[in-house]
Amino acid sequence: MKYFIEVVKQGGMTNASKSLYIAQPTISKAIKDIENEMGTPLFDRSKRHLILTDAGQIFYEKSKEIVALYDYLPSEMERLNGLETGHINMGMSAVMNMKILINILGAFHQQYPNVTYN
């Protein structure tokens, strides 16, 4: 899917292959494999440039969503596994209720034990 997205962004397989540092035949085969799997052409190849078919446009939009979710997964898995780390510096108003702040920080520390703050 990443190859397909890059082909669309770059306007062709040659430019996509240069951008991705992948051999152009590898890109072409990947696109052909996707088209075979989907059972429909994703590009109109009759013109000088590659133009998305209606199916290609749908596949492009959905592929961007899928790739974005996939790219987000590692950080989400870290969050679920409690691996967040870091440090937060805070300031507060003199009129803020200290008891409320202590309760908030306690709950935050339970959820994110590897985050320190002062």
From TrEMBL:
Instruction: Give this protein's Gene Ontology molecular function annotations.
Output: DNA binding; DNA-binding transcription factor activity
Which Gene Ontology CC terms are recorded? cytosol
Q: One Pfam family, short name please?
A: HTH_1
Q: Which residues form a coiled coil?
A: none
Gene3D superfamilies named among the record's database cross-references: Periplasmic binding protein-like II, Winged helix-like DNA-binding domain superfamily/Winged helix DNA-binding domain
- Presence of keyword Transcription: yes
Q: Which residues form the HTH lysR-type domain?
A: 1-53
Key words of the record: DNA-binding, Transcription, Transcription regulation
> Does the keyword Ligase belong to this entry?
no
Which SUPFAM superfamilies does the record match to this protein?
Answer: Winged helix' DNA-binding domain
The family note in this entry says: Belongs to the LysR transcriptional regulatory family.
Tell me the protein's name: LysR family regulatory protein CidR
Organism of this sequence: Staphylococcus aureus
Instruction: Kindly list the organism's lineage.
Output: Bacteria, Bacillati, Bacillota, Bacilli, Bacillales
Name of the gene: cidR_1
